[in-house]
Amino acid sequence: MDTLLNISSALFLLIGSFLCVSGGVGILRFPDFYTRMHAVGVTETLATAMILIGLMLQNPDGLVVVKLMIILLMTLFISPTASHALASAAVHNNLMPELDKKEDNEKETSSNP
Amino acid sequence: MLMGLYNYWIVVVLMMVGFYIVIAHGNLIKKIVGLSIFQTSVFIFYISMAKVDGGTAPILAEGISQYSNPLPHVLILTAIVVGIATTALGLALAVRIKEAYGSIEEEEIQKKDNLDC
Amino acid sequence: MKDLFAVIMLSGIYGLLSASFFVAMDAVDVAFTEASVGAGISTLLMLVAITMTGRSENPTRHKPVLALAVVIVTGSLLIYGTLDMPYFGLAQDPVHLHVAPRYINDSMQEVGVPNIVTSVLASYRAFDTLGEVVVIFTAGMGVLALLSVVRRPGDVARDIAKINSLNKSMHEEHLILRIVVKILIPFILLFALYVQFHGDYGPGGGFQAGVIFAAAIILYAMLFGMSTARRVINQSFIQLFAAIGVLLYGSVGVISLLNGKNFLDYSVLSADPVAGQHLGILLIELGVGFTVASVMVIIFFNFAGRKNDQQNNRE
Question: Which structural domain range is residue A57 located in?
Answer without folding.
Answer: 2-111
